[in-house]
Structure prediction request, 354 residues.
Amino acid sequence: MERSHPAVHPVAVPPQFDNQPPPNLRMKDLPGSPGTLGGLALRVGQFGFAIIAFGVMVAMTDFSTVTAFCYLVAAMVLQCLWSISLAMIDLYALLTRRSLRNSLLVGIFVVGDGVTSTLTLAAACATAGITVFIDNDLGKCGPSHCAKYEAAAAMAFLSWVLIQLSFLFSFYLLATR
Amino acid sequence: MERSHPAVHPVAVPPQFDNQPPPNLRMKDLPGSPGTLGGLALRVGQFGFAIIAFGVMVAMTDFSTVTAFCYLVAAMVLQCLWSISLAMIDLYALLTRRSLRNSLLVGIFVVGDGVTSTLTLAAACATAGITVFIDNDLGKCGPSHCAKYEAAAAMAFLSWVLIQLSFLFSFYLLATR
Prediction:
């Protein structure tokens, strides 16, 4: 009886990169993404600037006479609530060493950050526009009134810069998941 | 003389997926990304809304008395120039069937779209805020004046929606390249 000899050809095996993390985990170390220390710092910064803007605004007794100033106060309340909620989620993830790379969760972060950042920028720009209008164009600014409104607009703008960074990190995380 | 027989072990070879496109080409068909018909339509829409906002604004003789209205005109000029330039690049890419998936090129699109969309939203919000301030809070709006300013702000806002979409598509393309 003839025995068949199976032909065995050596083939080139692609390297397995056992020492490197798989590519879908590379975002984990990106500082600023949700669930990292950088992400928590961004949230705390957003909350801090937003609460300063809110405080400066409500300290002015006549802010409610201008629609856009009331809108800034409302936007800052929303910004504070959103940022402190996300800061708590980040803190929980850091303490329990959990990952926030769930698609649904990151999708909610992206939508929430996008909406909040748009509202904050809109409120900051409307406030800044009206302050410049009253101060430069009408010349009817009370003593140190406009400086305080400008300070509130600047704080809201700084808060927007930080939430925009959070939005970009979350969106990047969602795109590369 | 003893001849050495090299030991050959058959190994499992990972499948090559010859029939599937490589993952870095999956974005090519996403409508709205640079170099596609959807991307071109977004650019034309941005340009159209921006030029209408510009036209409505400069048709008002007294727009230059308000700083924010001058800023809206400047922002709309920048928006028109950026959108028409990108529309031409998209058209060139479509006609010559070239891909715009070059990292440097998409990076420039992302930065340009981000800056232009921020300036456009800021100008639209400042204009809207001042119009509401003059109309509702001061009650000093000339006949059909505020309606035209509101129309310009609305057109600028629609232009922002479209450029924001372009920005998100370009950023997604950059993140998944």
In short: Chain A has one domain: 32-175. Chain A has four helices and no strands. Chain A touches chain B through 29 residues (CB under 8 Å).
